[in-house]
Write a structure and sequence with these properties.
Blueprint (H helix, E strand, L loop, with lengths): L1 E3 L7 E6 L19 E7 L4 E8 L2 E10 L8 E6 L4 E9 L11 E7 L3 E7 L10 E6 L6 E6 L4 E6 L4 E5 L10 E4 L21 E9 L2 E8 L3 E6 L4 E7 L8 E8 L8 E10 L5 E13 L3 E5 L4 E5 L3 E7 L2 E6 L2 E6 L9 E4 L2 H8 L7 H12 L7 H13 L7 H10 L6 H6 L2 H15 L5 H22 L2 E7 L4 E6 L3 E4 L4 H7 L18 H22 L2 H11 L7 H14 L3 H11 L1 H33 L2 H15 L8 E2 L6 H33 L8 H30 L10 H7 L6 H9 L7 H6 L3 E2 L2 H4 L9 H17 L8 H14 L3 H17 L12 H18 L4 H20 L3 H6 L18 H18 L3 H25 L9 H18 L3 H10 L3 H17 L17 H14 L8 H11 L3 H22 L4 H20 L7 E2 L7 H6 L9 H6 L10 E2 H19 L12 H11 L3 H11 L2 H17 L25 H9 L3 H4 L5 H15 L6 H12 L7 H8 ...
Length: 1479
């Protein structure tokens, strides 16, 4: 059977173009055209195999690479590109021109179709540099050329159509003597007389070959006229000429010639010649001859008259003569024929090619094989329909990536068919997992409907395309042979394979039992061996019936269901469900699939065919079983034969000696692939026997089987078969499952990546991890390679022959299943040993599958004792599983998958600790297994052991940052402390527990607190803190709890009442205060605010106010020191802090509304010395402070004053105006001026009213309104100064909505302000109306300021109205309050507003004269009417002066006249009223 060399499809090519010479170019064809061909030579000891390939689709290039069996398959090959297309005449040989040359050990002869010959001296391919010596000579003038051959000394021999041989010494120049020697057949002496040669011609040379015989190069040539001639190249003499007696029929012709290696002992040279019959039925046959060689003075050759004829059917690809065999590579297999003198003794051995295996694995061998997969899966999983499609997809995907089936070029071409483009480097970098994801995504994308039928159809199409591409890109090209070792290999288009002989079971399964002339005995040793062999043959025929009935897909489903994790169905249910198909056929759901996929008519025909097939199977089985029972006489005899046969399926025990050398060479790749093939056959054979025996039990009543026979099957044979199945299942799993990629975070992986490890094999192994071709079996080969020639049966330095491969598979299977010395280990124990190796190399998924499979098998075993009573093996299994699950959870899993792995790891560790003999078993684990040491020695009590184991598990989970599992084991360890300590005292053994109970509990509770904090289980962490008996540890973790709550933004839990803090309230406050003092004041969340909320929740109002005041003070200090660019944000926070402090103090009785300020650290000291200091509590700080610096308290009045100033500073900062409180008495007044300048009137009045009283307040108001009045004058209004909308200003803190606006844009409130004079008049009116109650002369101040600024300004009506409304109610005239009409009249006069003054006076004189009768009595009272007569006189005089000066004479005269008339009437009225008053 063909055994692909894993990794041989991943060659990268180094391009080497051969320089062309235009003078040698020719247009016509001189030599035969090329086809897909390949060949090889073995040079050196140990041999190095140099292989070349020429592809028909790329005829200009020759691919060359070198194989060394003791090294891994090369990664780099040489692609030599020639100017013209190559013919098939290409030869490789050892360089004997330059004897001893290390730089160019090889010679390459190449002949192009244009007749140009090339001679290249080549170095080793692995160390190739572009320094090959090229010799180019055109042979076109000497053509046409029929065939060619070459020697190791630079001589190229070509056969020509005229029957001559031309020998070209390519090391010489074309004009040098000896460059060309011609060999022609001499017809004899008669040619001298001119008559014997007349009419006689020599046939054209058909083919030729060169072979070394007795140290001389001999040329063997066949001619079209049926002649065989042998020439001595060294003497240029003909040694032999013979007319071959080939086929007698007309049309048969010689085509090819092959020469074998001369046997020095028998002096025989084997020859093989191909005859082709070109008649109506074209046929070919190879005739094998022997030449006897006698050596005396000269070599004499004699043809043996006997010949061996080998018919060739279906064409051939390559033929090689190896030792006493002839190897014929055909399209459908490799045929090996022994070379005998007696033709009747010819035996042929056929080896199947990989195409058959690939077609079988991808369900392409028959039309319905893929449909059978889907139907059988439906029948088995009829109750679990959701798992049908995943199982089918997993089966196909697993087989696509199997070593030997997975092929890089074929898969890349198939993906390209689906428009999935990959560069070569990117595609080669994909791991097995990456390829799985890519293929699955492709199938899911193609199956748009998403139902199982469409997805399965996509799988069928994909597999068909892949198989076509596989055959197209990886067809066979030639044979690789080594006569010294009888090695036979196959060179394909893009890979290399070897061949191995078949096991007896394979020969039985592959061929018909009737055709096996020499039936294997399978170890039968009874007295009646012939009868037993007949019974075994009949039994195996029945087994084949079972296999054929279920098809080859049953084993695939069985294998997938066994290794799937988590299991889809129990392993005990698989065989009964397959047996049900044998008895009753497919399920109803499977029938529905036929209807939906094929249509009702075709489905009905399929159903009838299946039913007919089932009935035929049942009848054939019944007849065969009855015949078998009749021949044996009893079923017990048959069962004994079956039992002996089963023993043959068990891996053979072999005592071996292994060294520690790591060799990942070509032989290792061959061994792993051959192991997978043998394990597959053995597994399927055991499964078929299992189904056969189960079928016997199910029909036992129909075949007269006794109860004892049934019991033997159920209690002895089936358990034995199950053991065999699981052994070969695991071996096949190891040989076919890709390894995991190394995790970068693993130290061992980093070590490998850095290549610190000096072992070259291990470095190469690490690079291959995760690739499809690098399976788990290679990891085992890192730990085992035979160092004994006698044990290994073959030389590791050469490629093994067909039998050596089988022997090495048996050795490896023995080591894998039975150990190095073949000792009788249980499956559980051996699985644990293998799991150690896998764990050491980070293969966690493989360990999970391995141990899960073994666990399921052990649970299924029917034993009389408990499964745990197995010398602690059960505990070891779960311990290893726990380590595996834990590592998986740590390596990249997230979410639900990680939680599941953690849960499984916890479960396994608990089961490992509680099993029988766990202490002794787990302590015996080897340290080199890669597991962390348990750290306990000696015999301890069960409780002490569990305590220690739980602590170990807790530490491992903690190491992997998996707090959930660590917490569970910490709590479990706490439950064991008391019992462990009690048993420890009783046994007087202090080795196990050398600490007190409180110390151990304190440490464990501390760990519980840590883990619960990691999991954000704050309440559980608090419970762990208060449960800790160690007071020091309790306070440490209380501090840690506060820190964690602060860091994770959950600090509000402290003040929400969720944690009671029984007896720990003061400690909590101290910790918060200590951390607040040492934390950044701008950090969020802020600890001062937390302290405020903490104290408010406890109704400690004054403490709450103290912390918020301290927060504001620190914030102001650090803001001023650090110079924050956005000062307004800090001021806003200060305002919030002061507001919170004020609100808290308002909750206290006014008599106690003060705070005792807490001492804050010096901020400058913190900045200068940021390192950690010894912890000092607030109480300790107070004792160290000079009490004189804190001899006063801060009452609510002071805080409110600070709040007002800070509010003003905040508003100024929004207007980009900076103000600093100097602390002087004039600071508030200066602040008021600044606020007025910035148009912050509300804030200005607030500050003034807060800090000024009495006359100071009045003076301040006058300053404010004077400034505001000036802004109303149009000619001095500054447009750059804008005023706030007074409706948006206030003393209280802004709401949350306003806060968002302010923080979003500090200038937003200013942008809405108006800068024109009109808005200033409205503002002046508003505030004057509001604040005139504080100072009645404010209207006067405003009017005077306006007139002083602009004497011609038009006073607004509302301002004039304030003067008019200011008069007393019971007085007449112009008297009144501080702002009365008389003052306005006086202002008019003072600032030259004579018309307004005259009009105002006339208005009041007129009103006094024309009052209602009810008010006349008031006017007649003494002093009832008063006018500012002095001012009136001034007005009169001013008008006279203006008349005299000639300025506005007419207007002034008019005013005088009006004034004169009004005064006369008023005086007359006063006279009358005076008289009435006297009367």
């Amino acid at each position: 059977m063909e055994v692909p060399i894993l990794g041989s499809d991943s060659l990268k090519w180094l391009e080497f173009p051969v320089p062309s010479s235009s003078s040698n170019a020719a247009s016509d064809t001189c030599a035969p055209l090329t086809h897909d061909c390949a060949s090889s030579i073995a040079i050196g000891d140990p041999p190095a195999y140099l292989i070349y390939r020429i592809h028909k689709h790329l005829p200009h290039a020759l691919e060359l690479f070198e194989l060394c069996p003791d090294k891994e398959f090369p990664k780099l090959g040489l692609r030599i590109t020639f100017p013209q297309a190559l013919s098939s005449s290409v030869f490789l040989c050892k360089n004997e021109i330059d004897v001893g040359s290390r730089s160019h050990p090889y010679l390459l002869y190449a002949l192009t179709v244009a007749g140009v010959a090339y001679l290249l001296r080549l170095g080793t391919v692995s160390n190739y540099a572009s320094s090959s010596v090229v010799r180019e000579i055109s042979l076109h003038p000497h053509g046409p050329i029929a065939s060619a051959a070459a020697t190791t000394t630079g001589c190229l021999v070509v056969g020509r159509n005229d029957g001559s041989l031309a020998c070209f010494q390519l090391t010489l120049e074309s004009n040098a003597p000896g460059f060309l020697q011609e060999l022609r057949d001499d017809p004899g002496i008669g040619s001298l007389w001119g008559f014997m040669s007349r009419g006689r011609t020599v046939g054209a040379v058909q083919d030729l070959a060169i072979s070394m015989v007795r140290g001389k190069p001999l040329i063997f040539a066949i001619y079209t006229d049926g002649m065989l001639r042998v020439w001595d190249l060294s003497s240029h003499l003909r040694l032999f000429s013979h007319k071959l007696n080939g086929p007698t029929m007309a049309g048969a012709a010689l085509v090819r010639l092959w020469i074998g290696q001369a046997d020095n002992d028998s002096s025989t040279i084997p020859l093989a010649m191909l005859y082709r019959d070109n008649s109506e039925i074209c046929s070919e046959a190879i005739h094998v001859y022997s030449l006897h060689c006698n050596v005396a003075e000269r070599i004499a050759l004699l043809m043996d008259p006997s010949e061996q004829v080998i018919p060739i059917e279906d064409g051939w690809i390559d033929v090689k003569l190896v030792s006493n065999k002839i190897c014929i590579l055909k399209n459908n297999g490799l045929m090996l024929h022994e070379l005998h003198k007696n033709v009747s003794m010819v035996d042929a051995v056929c080896y199947a090619l990989q195409e058959d295996f690939v077609a079988d694995q991808l369900f392409q061998s028959s039309e319905h094989s893929s449909d059978d997969l889907f139907v059988i899966t439906h029948s088995i999983l009829s109750s679990s329909k959701d798992h049908i499609l995943p199982i089918v997809s997993s089966i196909i995907l697993r087989r696509l990536l199997l070593p030997g089936i997975h092929h890089n070029a074929a898969l890349r071409t198939t993906l390209l068919d689906y428009n999935r483009h990959w560069t070569e480097s990117d595609f080669h970098s994909l791991t097995a997992d990456g390829l799985k994801k890519e293929i699955l995504s492709l199938i899911e994308h193609e199956g748009l409907t998403g139902n199982s039928s469409s997805i399965f159809c996509c799988w069928k199409i994909f597999c068909a395309r892949y198989f076509q591409n596989w055959c197209k890109s990886n067809g066979p090209c030639g044979l690789l042979v080594d006569s010294s070792t009888d090695t036979v290999g196959l060179i394909r288009k893009s890979s290399v394979s070897s061949f191995r002989s078949l096991e007896d079971i394979e020969r039985v399964n592959d061929g018909s039992l009737d055709e096996l002339g020499n039936f294997p005995s399978f170890g039968l040793d009874s007295s009646d061996e012939a009868l037993d062999c007949d019974l075994l043959a009949e039994m195996l025929r029945c087994v084949i019936y079972v296999n054929q009935q279920l098809g080859k897909t049953a084993s695939a489903i069985f294998y997938e269901l066994l290794i799937s994790a988590p299991p889809v169905i129990s392993s005990e249910e698989i065989i009964p469900r397959l047996l049900k198909i044998l008895e009753t056929g497919y399920s109803s759901t499977a029938s529905m699939l036929h209807i939906s996929g094929l249509g009702p008519d075709v489905a009905w025909e399929k159903k009838l065919a299946d039913h007919k097939n089932l009935r035929k199977f049942s009848i054939d089985m019944m007849l065969s079983l009855h015949a078998l029972h009749k021949k044996s006489g009893s079923w017990s005899h048959i069962l004994s034969v079956i039992e002996n046969y089963l023993k043959y399926l068990i891996p053979q025990k072999m005592i071996q000696k292994y060294d520690a050398e790591v060799v990942l060479d070509i032989n290792a790749a061959i061994l792993v692939q051959a192991t997978s093939q043998v394990a597959k056959v053995m597994l399927e054979s055991a499964l078929d026997i299992h189904l056969f025996l189960s079928y016997l039990v199910s029909i036992s009543g129909q075949i007269n089987m006794l109860h004892d026979d049934i019991s033997k099957i159920q209690l002895e044979l089936i358990p034995m078969i199950q053991e065999i199945i699981y052994e070969w299942l695991l071996l096949h799993f190891f040989a076919t499952t890709p390894s995991e990629s190394a995790a970068i975070e693993d130290f061992s992986s980093q070590l490998s990546l850095l290549q610190i490890d000096s072992n070259k094999g291990r470095r190469s192994w690490n690079e291959k991890l995760g690739k499809c071709e690098f399976t788990l079996a290679f990891i085992f080969l890192l730990n085992v390679r035979s160092s004994s020639r006698e044990q290994s049966h073959y030389d590791l330095r050469s490629i093994p022959n067909v039998q050596d491969i089988v022997d090495s598979v048996r050795e490896f299977a023995s080591w894998t299943m039975l150990g190095q010395n073949g000792e009788s280990l249980t499956l559980l124990r051996r699985a644990a040993d293998l799991a150690f190796i896998l764990l050491r190399h980070g293969q966690y998924d493989a360990v999970e599958h391995l141990l899960t499979i073994v666990e399921a098998h052990l649970l299924k075993e029917k034993t009389s004792h408990g499964i745990q009573a197995t010398d602690g093996g059960w505990c070891i299994l779960h311990h290893l599983l726990g380590c595996c699950f834990l590592a998986q959870a740590h390596r990249g899993l997230h979410g639900v998958l990680k939680e599941r792995k953690v849960h499984e790891a916890v479960r396994c560790f608990f089961r490992a600790a509680s099993g029988k003999g766990s202490a002794q078993a787990l302590q015996s684990l080897p340290q080199e297994a890669g597991l962390p040491p348990l750290g306990i020695n000696g015999i301890v009590s069960d409780a002490a052991w569990r305590l220690h184991y739980y602590q170990w598990a807790m530490q491992i989970f903690e190491q992997y940052n998996i707090s959930e599992g660590a917490c569970q084991f910490a709590l479990a360890a706490l439950e064991q402390v008391e019992e462990a300590y009690s048993s420890n005292n009783q046994s007087h053994d202090r080795a196990a527990l050398n600490e007190s109970v409180s110390t151990i509990k304190g440490s464990l509770w501390a760990h519980v607190c840590k883990f619960t904090l990691d999991l954000n289980l704050f309440y559980d962490a608090y419970c762990a803190i208060i449960s800790n008996p160690d007071e020091e540890s309790k306070y440490i973790w209380l501090r840690r709890l506060i820190i964690v709550l602060y860091e994770r933004g959950a600090i509000k839990i402290l003040c929400g009442g969720q944690l009671p803090f029984i007896g720990l309230t003061e400690k909590v406050e101290q910790e918060l205060a200590w951390k607040a003092e040492r934390s950044d004041i701008l950090a969020k969340p802020n600890l001062y605010k937390l302290l405020y909320a903490f104290e408010m929740h406890r109704h400690n109002w004054r403490k709450a106010a103290s912390y918020m005041y301290l927060y504001s003070a620190r914030l102001r200090t650090e803001t001023s020191l650090k110079g924050y660019q956005q000062l307004w944000r800090s001021l806003k926070e200060i305002l919030n802090g002061l507001s919170a402090a004020i609100n808290a103090l308002h909750l206290v009785h006014p008599a106690y509304a003060w705070i005792d300020p807490l001492l804050e650290r010096n901020t400058l000291h913190n900045e200068q010395y940021p390192s950690k200091k010894a912890r000092i509590t607030i109480e300790d700080q107070r004792n160290d402070v000079d009490l004189q610096s804190w001899k006063f308290y801060i009452d609510i009045q002071k805080i409110e004053n600070e709040f007002v100033l800070t509010s003003a500073e905040y508003l100024l900062s929004l207007a980009h105006v900076k103000w600093t409180n100097t602390g002087t008495k004039r600071a508030p007044l200066e602040l008021v001026d600044l606020l007025i300048q910035t148009n912050l009137y509300d804030m200005a009045f607030t500050v003034l009213l807060r800090f000024s009283k009495g006359s100071e307040l009045k003076r301040g108001l006058e300053r404010i309104f004077s400034a505001m009045s000036l802004k109303c004058c149009p000619h001095i209004v500054d447009s750059s100064r804008v005023g706030d909308d007074p409706t948006k200003q206030g003393l209280l803190l802004t709401s949350s909505k306003d806060e968002v606006i302010v923080h979003g844009s500090p200038d937003m409130c200013l942008s809405n302000q108006q800068s024109n004079g009109t808005s200033q008049w409205g503002t002046l009116e508003l505030y004057l109306e509001r604040y005139k109650v504080f100072h009645a002369r404010l209207p006067l101040i405003v009017a005077e300021t306006l007139l002083r600024t602009d004497s011609q300004i038009e006073l607004p009506l509302w301002l004039v109205k304030l003067f008019k409304d200011g008069k007393r109610d019971k007085t007449l005239g112009m008297t009144g309050q501080e702002s009365n009409p008389a003052l306005l009249f006086q202002l008019y006069v003072d600032y030259g507003r004579y018309r307004e003054a005259t009009n105002l006076l006339l208005e009041y004189i007129g009103s006094s004269a024309s009052m209602r009768p009810a008010n006349i009595m008031n006017r007649k009272r003494p002093f009832g009417v008063w006018f500012p007569y002095t001012t009136i006189q001034r007005l009169w005089c001013q008008l006279e002066e203006m008349v005299k000066s000639g300025y506005m004479v007419d207007q002034c005269k008019q005013l005088k006249d009006l004034l004169h008339g009004a005064l006369l009437k008023h005086l007359e009225l006063v006279k009358v009223d005076s008289e009435d008053a006297l009367g």
